[in-house]
Specification:
heterodimer, A: 85 residues, mainly beta, Umud Fragment, subunit A, 7-stranded antiparallel beta sheet, 7 strands, 0% helix, 52% strand, globular, B: 142 residues, mainly alpha, Four Helix Bundle (Hemerythrin (Met), subunit A), elongated
Chain lengths: 85, 142
């Protein structure tokens, strides 16, 4: 599965910048990769780095310090970011 | 040929859904640091003085945290256009927190309070109170 999103926000700087367009692809989950996921708190999408995968739980973190981590279910991850344009 | 439709937005920020940000949090902790310095100077009790330093360290760390949250989560690129000195103000304020940690000089504490007031001024001029504060019931009824 392939998708495209536009980044809003600054928590992934310097890797990703506000306004970047990303292409994501459904690939196996791996710590250290950047993914697009459904935010369990509302119906928005988030773009974050996978900090850890523990069973069905995935811990997502920001690249910029000072931002909280987010715990999502494996099924909430839509795909790994493979292209930035 | 268009393979994709219009892209959805993927949010790269983790601010709480409530969106409540207020420099008052940073100021209260900075006021604690200032008053701790004052009490430290007035005391001759070594145990009290040791506790005062430890608590000042904790309060100063909270100042830094509250400033960071405002900087990262409340202020947006359009605010930077309005206040080009925004990053400089936050950077200097964070440095000043470190100065407060390392000192018992009340003048350093006052400098930090003045810097937080500059942040507060930007927050007010960008509609911070209207966006984030919840009016008291008495005001709502009036």
């Amino acid at each position: 599965m392939l998708g495209r999103v536009r980044v809003a926000g600054h928590s992934m700087e310097p890797s990703l910048r506000h306004g970047d367009t990303l292409v994501y692809l459904r690939l196996p989950l791996r710590a250290g990769t950047v993914v697009v996921a459904e935010d369990p708190r509302d119906d928005r999408l988030v773009v974050k780095r996978v900090a850890a995968v523990e069973g069905d739980d995935v811990v997502l973190a920001s690249d910029m310090p000072g931002h909280e981590s987010l715990l999502v279910e494996r099924s909430a991850v839509l795909g790994r970011v493979v292209l930035r344009c | 040929m268009r393979i994709f439709g219009r892209p959805r937005t993927a949010y790269a920020h983790c601010d709480l859904p409530c969106g409540v940000y207020d420099p008052a949090q940073a100021r209260i902790e900075a006021e604690s640091c200032y008053k701790i310095m004052e009490k430290y100077k007035a005391s001759n009790d070594p145990v009290f003085k040791e506790r005062a330093i430890a608590i000042k360290e904790e309060r100063a760390e909270l100042v830094k945290h509250h400033l960071d949250v405002l900087w990262h989560d409340y202020f947006k690129p359009e605010h930077l256009e309005k206040f080009p000195e925004l990053h400089e103000i936050f950077w200097k304020a964070a440095k000043q927190v470190s100065a407060v940690k390392a000192s018992v000089d009340m003048a350093e504490g006052q400098k930090l309070l003045d810097m937080i007031d500059k942040v507060d001024e930007m927050w007010r001029k960008t509609g911070g109170p209207e966006k984030t504060r919840v009016p008291s019931s008495a005001k709502k009824a009036a």
